[in-house]
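Researcher: Going back to the complex we discussed earlier. I've cleaned up the inputs and rechecked each line, so this should be the final set. Can you rerun the prediction on the complete assembly and write out the structure?
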Amino acid sequence: MRRTLTIFIAILLLALGSAPAHAADDDQLEIVVYRDNPGQHGPTQELVKQWAKETNTEVKITMAGHSTRRTIITTALEGASGPDILIMANFEGFLYGNGLMDISDLAEEIGKANGGWYDISVSMGKIDGVWKALPIYNYPHMMLYRRDMFKSAGQDVPDTWEDFRNTLKALKDSTGVKATPFGISIGRSFDGQQFLVALILSHGGKVLSDDGSKVVFNSPETVAALKYVINLYNDGLMDPTTPGWNDGTNNQALLSGRTAITFNSNSIKLQAKREFKDLYPDIGTAIYPKGPDKRASNPNVFSYGIRKTTKHSEKAKQLLAYLFRKDNYAKVLTETEGAVGVSLKGFEDLDVWKDPDNATNLKAQPSSYMYTLPSAKSAEIFNNYVIIDMVADVLVNGKTPEEAVEKAAMTMEKILLAK
Amino acid sequence: MSAKQTFLSRFAREISSGGTVFVLPAALLSLVLIAYPFFNAVWISFTNNTVGNPKKIFIGLDNYHYWVTHPHFWKVFLNTFVYAGGTVVFAIVFGFAIGLSLHKMKFARDFWGAVILIPWIVPTVVTTLVWLWMFNPMAGVLNYVFTTTGLSDYGLNWLGNPTLAWVSVLVVSAWRYTPYFGLVILAARKEVPDDYYEVAEIDGAGSFSQFFYVTVPMVWKVLFFTSILMFVRVAYDFVVVYVLTRGGPVGETEIISILTFNIAFDTGQMGLGVAAPLLMFPLFAPMILIVTNSMVRSIVGIK
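Model: Rerun complete. Updated structure for the full complex:
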């Protein structure tokens, strides 16, 4: 009895130790759909289900918000199981490139069918020269403002950053001392970082030299852009609680009338349409103001990729091709009033752009830039909020703008130029 | 019989005994769910592993060297101790208030005992999200009180000011662990004979003296071991800080779990990310060993 039990235990332990490192792949195709504020996930889910029905394929949809998306992707890639189609933001294709499938054939096919990819889409999709991510939406970042407040203050939409500051001053003076005309999350948030990146780029600042060999972020242009934000805050033109805001607070502030302007995607207008119908006509959209060097905004580029270890590669490609079909893409654009932007030139002629507020999403495309050349290290810098932390370094830690920029530049150097 | 044969037969006798069989399921679960992931993580910490990359190249102590020479790591290290220590201290203070109050209650003690457990029972992410709303600069109840009473024009920057951010995360964390300490103290207080208090009263000791010279000495042993275990648990806590501040502003409230998450999941550097919390392990492991050793000794009856 003793010997039998001993042998049994030993075999059990051996069996456990030699178990495969990862679970078997699921039987069904699984896609991660990004749950966003404009509501793109609604029509996307419908399209996926429609495709599943038409092709008689079992598909599982995993909804992922901004804070859970990377965890889901990491788990899927590390565990080689779970979702087959992953949704990535900005430079993440470069972070996860080793775990993604080569989909060059699909990218070429979609590009040919839809008028060609924008340059920004190509830079996000081609990882080390190989298409591994398919940028589906370039959510533009733009100015959202309260038409009613602008009207009562007799103000037009500002065209330059200088006009912007003057407009804020006029708005503040018109509504009394307590008014805080502008607010954007300047803590660790994507909207705040996109805003600051746009300011820096429009002032002529940049991260890398033209040959990509040196970090040139520490420049008078970058300092000027940072000083612009700090001055807005110190001069009472920006809500004093903005260092503690998150990406949702921007929406709340504009919709509640606490602020008159913010920078965001069109999600605020869509939220007004759903929840504050009377306010909806008063939410206006405009492209970013122009800086001394150029007009610039920093979009959020979302891309689909296919897990290299998937057992459903053909089905996954078919589903993605379906989502990129013009009529299906138009459905998403229409239901989000253009908020998701476009990644292909062939979608510029859709009816959704006939509404001037929707058309801002398209107008923002030519001046949309990523903050630097795409790479895994660029993702590391962006995801670690190196740029937006400069604001808190000045306002919270008491550094001068020059010191804050220097610190950010040194961090970038350590990351970007490390071997 | 040789020494080796004696050992093997004794070993076989031990593991096939009835006691071992009963412990086996738990031991196997621990192996699979704790030991394997732990040792796998240790291995990964010695590699340059990144997400999705099947290749793991051994790089020795490079990841550990990176953290030890990185100034921000030591700030995070200190933050972790402040967070864990602050949580435990405040939870004990308020735990005493709750535990002793419950002990004194004559009616509805069970009802209030259950109510007080709510912060402990409700999932942390749910309660922290509620707190996040309370701290909201424009829609939160706290700033509503501050602005409507005229204490502040725009409300306080609960999560954007470094001092207030620390207060906020410590309040929420301590609030979550207070019921646990309250119940531990209640249970320990129940074991203290009432005679001790009668004698103290006869000797002229007031409430404060009875608390410091009778209650505290009688419960401190249980509290000491519980505090150590909770300290280690809170040090690796993630949800409260992540939901409230993400470690901001500018990393002011960043603790080791947030740093690990940021590096491993936000930048995909698994090897580097896993090395950070393992650096704290040599500090916490002896603490756990002291506690478990003392517990085993007191169960077995060894002094």
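Model: Worth noting: Chain B has 15 helices and no strands.
Researcher: Good, that matches what I expected from the previous run.
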